[in-house]
Amino acid sequence: MKRVIVDYSKLTINILNILIEKYPDGYDHTNIIKFKNSKAETISAVEVKTDDTIYLVKISSQLEKTMEDFLDDDTSFNSTNSDYF
Length: 85
Description:
26% of the residues lie in helices and 28% in strands. A hairpin with a 3-residue loop joins β3 and β4 (53-58). By secondary structure, it is an alpha+beta fold. It has a four-stranded mixed β-sheet, with helices on one face. The protein has one domain. The protein has helices at 13-22, 61-72, and strands at residues 2-6, 32-36, 42-49, 53-58.
């Protein structure tokens, strides 16, 4: 199974749907995974899985807002990279 780190700018509608399904009430500190990237920076992410991939979605205030907006109106998400995955 491959692991992919996903930033908000690379978030697809598919990954957003998986996030909403897994965390319908939002995520908390028990759902957060922290790790160091190749630049020794600490990254905080939440994990979602598909059949063949584990996505580590970086946490940001923009991610939380996007999840909330998507729940309110699923047409508010505009992925610039919908073909990324």
